[in-house]
């Protein structure tokens, strides 16, 4: 059900978006009339979503060659570091601590065994998972509420709210690292709950970091959902919250997934605050990976193996949810 | 109208939040009293990374802390903090008042941290509880705070720089023994250089290492980086000569590989251990070399060379390197912290721990152990007692390490990129560094 | 925490909309409460969690940070901030005095950051838009390629940058192995992590990490352009290039406006990449402002001065963003 709504939504956005563009874009005037004429033919040939495209617009040869060359170069640029990462994680230590070599002297999986004992990687992994997971969950819920309010209601201070939220994106992290730390300590002292060094403090911090962008993206997405939908729900006897939960949220799944992915990535990758706000039991992967550079040497093969272990879940998740991301971003940030 | 009202409301909210937030901002307990005994059964201890890895440290310390618990009934919560984040963590703990009860600090930070007032001063009364100041070697104790104040910490591990050399490479090049002066070192280095190998390996990309060598060479040139009143004198002629001489090992003498200019991850230890360089200037490198696959009979250790054979200040061959143990002033287990300090500086623990880490006990009575009679530790001990000087114990010391260390790093980068390093260019870098010191 | 006041605006409509604070309104109560009042209170309630967090974690600390910038907060005082003397605008004056070393270094760092940002953002955008246009049509392997291109962005920043620092080592790095040993492009092996090349290294790493984001967003935006437009243009005799110039790029304009701004802010404030690539002391050529400020505060223990620099940076960013939004057309009109 949500699938269908989502598609409908995306289409709706597409029309709205281009309508606006065509108005001020240079292409508007020239394309409008023939467009109508052609559209009929195109849809007859399977619609614009069909993979088998109409031949008149098939790209010229030169374009195909440009595409091949450029995409090959981009592939090399994007893939080489990844390739080295993977291959280095399978090399013995002497292969990665001397001259670089493409072909390893031998293949070994011992880095993948050793990483767990050189540093308590499993603990760090778990910490990252808890922190990023909780921050993401809370961020999505809070952002959904806030975005719904901004998208559906007129109220005083709305403009102020959106502007303030957006401006926090400009704050240099370093400016409030120490103050934030102090606030946690003081709050901890006042409430008797040890915040400093706890996962809770880190969760709240990351959650707040991701809120502005999440809210902002969701406002865009909610705006693209026709109001008729929730108004219909309202007349059906749902309260505003009921309308949000039963109608708007299901229709906004792609946008919400996009926001969740963004939040999770941010929390999973943050370095600066984690370095000061965690202790040994709450240390996250971002800091934990430094452990492979010891006082005597850097275990590069283990660094690469651990990096892969830290990356795989997030890259896999990202790529799996990619489809949602595109839809979510289309209506959200992009609009 | 609508706007301004909203804005007022926001201003009020913000102001209220601010009051809430800043009201408590004195950094934890603001009292100046020296600790309490609110939690007598528990201690938090931040250890620095002394072993080959954090895991190694934990393995070394765990049984000792168990013994302490058995003895006193106090449970010690250990956290081993990597060097990369130790100072940030200490600063955060200082500014918030929420930190460990006992912690390790690099002894060069002593005076800087002392100036924050966060560490318990070891006055006579406190000192008596650990057996008195006489138990420690004077040079180690001199590196535990400003000279006119009570020490801010107790030395627990001492280290000194030595010249490590590859015996086989020396023999193959027809060199009889380790160089005694820098001229000899350069001459020997040239003999060793060639065929993909180099005379010496330097950690040129590491500001801290650079600043240490600038200090040692500075002493040999009769220069201090701070004057008696604690004002920086980074660009005095002696200091310029010192830094230039160090950089010239790579720039003019070319006995260090250009790549050394970016070494900051212990690559110089690796290159020396792998026989790519014949010499290395390092503190107690034994464990590090062995973990890189070099056997202990393959290298020799000698004191770092001097300009001319002689003595006094100009005969300085090392800084007093090492680790100090400090007690956080607002600990909630002051008695336990004192007991722990006594335990960690006891003769027995000193022997065990220093032997495990390959360092030298700063406690005199503990030094007479076979573990410290190895050829290399003998040399380093000799250097430590006779010819080493503590880094300037002034509150701006940490800035010295950063600024002079970075200036030297930049000079190395220049040299490695083929740019000339002249007395003028060195002087320019150093005076720029000095001017960064605001007050 | 009880002193935390309600979010902006709540205090006023409270009188009229008070009751709705008592909990999620139920459909039953609709008739009891005039619709007007409920609608006035609800949005604030929905905003409350976000607002509290923003004030507590973003705005509050920021204000403390601004306060710090007016104090002499060196190591003697960090233990007890209230004892730190007020210095008025001293910290700022020193930071902007470009004839003195501190200000000069800051200005240098500022210029480096500007150059870095302009280069990194435009390259990231260029690669993103190129790839997005080239991959607009479906072809064999497009899905795989898209996944591959997006991976650098999905990687956690530390693993990505650690890998690059491994590649960029002078002696054992892959980059030098290829350009020096295998292709013989340079006489000697260049340094990438120190000296002047470090700037180029920083740009490459930043672009490698951010261009997929531009690619993703632009790809999404391209899907919104109806194919009819292209088909029509084709009938009109417009070639590939003209279609891109006349249809694609203009349609992307609103997206670009947001995308460039987001990339600009992220790149300008970027701390992670230089920090992991170079450590606590970046080479002069790559001395980005975030690292510079980190060093001014944490390494030399002068938090007042570091905060003053941060405040200046913030002002600059506000100015640029404001100007940008004005010039490119008033931002998002959400107040409807």
From TrEMBL, chain B:
<feature type="signal peptide">
    <location>
        <begin position="1"/>
        <end position="23"/>
    </location>
</feature>
<keyword id="KW-0732">Signal</keyword>
<protein>
    <submittedName>
        <fullName>Sugar ABC transporter substrate-binding protein</fullName>
    </submittedName>
</protein>
<dbReference type="InterPro" id="IPR050490">
    <property type="entry name" value="Bact_solute-bd_prot1"/>
</dbReference>
<dbReference type="InterPro" id="IPR006059">
    <property type="entry name" value="SBP"/>
</dbReference>
<dbReference type="Pfam" id="PF01547">
    <property type="entry name" value="SBP_bac_1"/>
</dbReference>
From TrEMBL, chain C:
<protein>
    <submittedName>
        <fullName>ABC transporter permease</fullName>
    </submittedName>
</protein>
<feature type="transmembrane region" description="Helical">
    <location>
        <begin position="199"/>
        <end position="222"/>
    </location>
</feature>
<dbReference type="InterPro" id="IPR051393">
    <property type="entry name" value="ABC_transporter_permease"/>
</dbReference>
<dbReference type="GO" id="GO:0005886">
    <property type="term" value="C:plasma membrane"/>
</dbReference>
<dbReference type="GO" id="GO:0055085">
    <property type="term" value="P:transmembrane transport"/>
</dbReference>
<feature type="transmembrane region" description="Helical">
    <location>
        <begin position="250"/>
        <end position="268"/>
    </location>
</feature>
<feature type="transmembrane region" description="Helical">
    <location>
        <begin position="40"/>
        <end position="60"/>
    </location>
</feature>
<comment type="similarity">
    <text>Belongs to the binding-protein-dependent transport system permease family.</text>
</comment>
<keyword id="KW-1133">Transmembrane helix</keyword>
<feature type="transmembrane region" description="Helical">
    <location>
        <begin position="110"/>
        <end position="135"/>
    </location>
</feature>
<keyword id="KW-1003">Cell membrane</keyword>
<dbReference type="Pfam" id="PF00528">
    <property type="entry name" value="BPD_transp_1"/>
</dbReference>
<keyword id="KW-0813">Transport</keyword>
<feature type="domain" description="ABC transmembrane type-1">
    <location>
        <begin position="110"/>
        <end position="324"/>
    </location>
</feature>
<dbReference type="InterPro" id="IPR000515">
    <property type="entry name" value="MetI-like"/>
</dbReference>
<keyword id="KW-0472">Membrane</keyword>
<feature type="transmembrane region" description="Helical">
    <location>
        <begin position="307"/>
        <end position="327"/>
    </location>
</feature>
<feature type="region of interest" description="Disordered">
    <location>
        <begin position="1"/>
        <end position="29"/>
    </location>
</feature>
<keyword id="KW-0812">Transmembrane</keyword>
<dbReference type="InterPro" id="IPR035906">
    <property type="entry name" value="MetI-like_sf"/>
</dbReference>
<feature type="compositionally biased region" description="Pro residues">
    <location>
        <begin position="1"/>
        <end position="10"/>
    </location>
</feature>
<feature type="transmembrane region" description="Helical">
    <location>
        <begin position="147"/>
        <end position="167"/>
    </location>
</feature>
């Amino acid at each position: 059900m949500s699938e269908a709504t989502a598609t409908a939504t995306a289409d709706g956005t597409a029309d709205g978006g281009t309508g606006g563009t065509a108005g001020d874009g240079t292409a508007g005037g020239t394309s409008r009339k023939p467009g109508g004429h052609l559209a009929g033919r195109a849809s007859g040939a399977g619609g614009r979503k069909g993979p088998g495209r109409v031949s008149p617009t098939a790209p010229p040869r030169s374009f195909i060659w440009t595409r091949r060359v450029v995409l090959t170069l981009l592939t090399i640029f994007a893939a080489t570091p990844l390739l080295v990462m993977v291959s280095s994680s399978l090399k013995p230590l002497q292969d990665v601590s001397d001259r670089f070599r493409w072909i390893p002297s031998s293949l070994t999986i011992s880095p993948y065994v050793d990483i767990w004992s050189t540093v308590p990687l499993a603990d760090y992994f778990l910490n990252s998972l808890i922190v990023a997971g909780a921050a993401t969950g809370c961020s999505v819920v809070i952002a959904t509420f806030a975005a719904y309010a901004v998208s559906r209601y007129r109220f005083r201070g709305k403009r102020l709210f959106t502007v303030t939220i957006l401006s926090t994106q400009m704050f240099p992290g370093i400016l409030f690292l120490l103050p934030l730390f102090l606030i946690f300590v003081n709050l901890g002292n006042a409430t008797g709950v040890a915040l400093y060094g706890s996962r809770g403090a880190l969760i709240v911090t990351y959650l707040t970091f991701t809120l502005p962008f999440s809210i902002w993206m969701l406002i865009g997405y909610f705006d693209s959902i026709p109001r008729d939908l929730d108004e219909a729900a309202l007349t059906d006897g749902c309260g505003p919250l009921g309308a949000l939960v039963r109608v708007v949220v299901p229709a906004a799944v792609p946008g919400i997934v996009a926001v969740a992915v963004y939040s999770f990535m941010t929390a999973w990758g943050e370095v600066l605050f984690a370095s000061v706000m965690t202790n040994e039991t709450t240390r996250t992967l971002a800091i934990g990976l430094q452990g492979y550079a010891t006082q005597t040497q850097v275990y590069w093969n283990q660094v690469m193996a651990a990096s892969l272990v830290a990356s795989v879940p997030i890259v896999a998740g990202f790529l799996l949810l990619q489809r949602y991301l595109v839809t979510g971003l289309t209506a959200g940030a992009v609009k | 109208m609508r706007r301004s009202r909203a804005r007022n409301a926001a201003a009020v909210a913000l102001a209220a939040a601010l009051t809430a937030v800043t009201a408590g901002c004195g950094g934890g307990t603001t009292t100046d009293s020296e600790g309490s005994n609110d939690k007598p059964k528990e201690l938090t201890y931040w250890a620095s990374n002394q072993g080959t890895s954090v895991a190694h440290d934990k393995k070394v310390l765990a049984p000792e802390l168990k013994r302490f618990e058995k003895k006193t009934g106090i449970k010690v919560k250990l956290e081993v903090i990597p060097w990369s984040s130790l100072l940030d963590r200490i600063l955060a703990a200082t500014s918030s008042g929420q930190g460990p009860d006992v912690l390790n600090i690099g002894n060069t930070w002593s005076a800087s941290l002392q100036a924050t007032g966060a560490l318990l001063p070891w006055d006579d009364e406190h000192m008596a509880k650990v057996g008195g100041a006489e138990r420690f070697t004077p040079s180690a104790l001199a590196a535990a705070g400003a000279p006119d104040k009570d020490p801010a910490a107790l030395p627990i591990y001492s280290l000194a720089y030595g010249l490590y050399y590859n015996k086989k490479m020396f023999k193959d090049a027809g060199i009889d023994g380790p160089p005694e002066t820098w001229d000899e070192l350069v001459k020997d280095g040239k003999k060793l250089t060639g065929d993909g190998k180099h005379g010496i390996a330097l950690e040129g990309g590491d500001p801290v290492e650079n600043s240490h060598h600038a200090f040692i060479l500075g002493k040999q040139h009769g220069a201090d980086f701070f004057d008696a009143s604690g004002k920086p004198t980074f660009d005095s002629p002696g200091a310029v000569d010192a830094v230039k001489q160090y950089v010239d090992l790579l720039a003019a003498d070319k006995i260090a590989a250009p790549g050394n200019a970016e070494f900051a991850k212990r690559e110089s230890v690796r290159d020396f251990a792998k026989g790519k360089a014949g010499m290395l200037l390092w503190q107690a490198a034994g464990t590090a070399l062995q973990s890189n696959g070099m056997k202990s009979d393959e290298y020799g250790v000698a004191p770092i060379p001097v300009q001319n054979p002689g003595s006094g200040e100009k005969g300085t061959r090392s800084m007093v390197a090492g680790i100090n143990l400090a007690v956080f002033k607002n600990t909630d287990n002051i008695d336990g912290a004192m007991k722990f300090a006594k335990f960690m500086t006891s003769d027995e623990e000193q022997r065990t721990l220093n032997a495990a880490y390959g360092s030298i006990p700063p406690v005199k009575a503990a030094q007479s152990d076979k573990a410290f009679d190895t050829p290399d530790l003998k040399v380093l001990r000799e250097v430590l007692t006779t010819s080493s000087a503590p880094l300037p114990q002034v509150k701006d010391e940490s800035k010295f390490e950063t600024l002079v260390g970075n200036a030297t790093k930049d000079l190395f980068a220049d040299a490695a990129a083929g740019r000339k390093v002249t007395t003028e260019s060195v002087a320019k870098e150093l005076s720029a560094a000095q001017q960064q010191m605001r007050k | 925490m009880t002193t935390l006041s309600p979010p902006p605006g709540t205090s006023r409509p409270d009188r009229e909309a008070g009751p709705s604070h008592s909990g999620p309104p139920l459909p039953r109560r609709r008739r009891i409460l005039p619709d007007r009042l409920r609608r006035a209170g609800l949005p604030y309630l929905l905003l409350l969690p976000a607002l509290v967090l923003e004030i507590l974690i973003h705005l509050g600390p920021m204000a403390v940070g601004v306060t710090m910038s007016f104090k002499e907060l060196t190591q003697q005082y960090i233990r007890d901030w209230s004892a730190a003397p007020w210095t008025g605008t001293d910290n700022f004056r020193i930071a902007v005095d470009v004839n003195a070393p501190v200000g000069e270094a800051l200005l240098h760092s500022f210029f480096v950051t500007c150059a870095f940002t302009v280069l990194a953002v435009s390259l990231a955008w260029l690669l993103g838009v190129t790839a997005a246009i080239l991959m607009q049509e479906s072809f064999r392997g497009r899905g795989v390629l898209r996944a591959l291109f997006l991976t650098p962005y999905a990687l956690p920043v530390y693993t990505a940058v650690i890998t690059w620092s491994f590649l960029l080592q002078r002696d054992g790095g892959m980059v030098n192995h290829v350009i020096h040993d295998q292709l013989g492009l340079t006489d000697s092996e260049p340094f990438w992590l120190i000296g002047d090349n470090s700037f180029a290294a920083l740009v490459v790493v930043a672009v490698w990490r951010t261009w997929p984001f531009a690619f993703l967003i632009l790809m999404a935006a391209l899907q919104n352009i109806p194919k009819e437009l292209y088909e029509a243009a084709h009938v009109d005799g417009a070639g590939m290039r003209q279609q891109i110039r006349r249809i694609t790029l203009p349609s992307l304009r609103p997206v670009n406006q947001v995308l460039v701004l987001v990339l600009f802010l992220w790149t300008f404030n970027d701390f992670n990449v230089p920090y992991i690539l170079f450590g606590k002391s970046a080479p002069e050529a790559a001395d980005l402002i975030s690292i510079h400020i980190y060093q001014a505060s944490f390494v030399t223990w002068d938090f007042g001065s570091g905060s003053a620099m941060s405040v200046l940076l913030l002002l600059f960013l506000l100015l640029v963003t404001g100007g940008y939004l004005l010039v490119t057309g008033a931002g998002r009109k959400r107040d409807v």
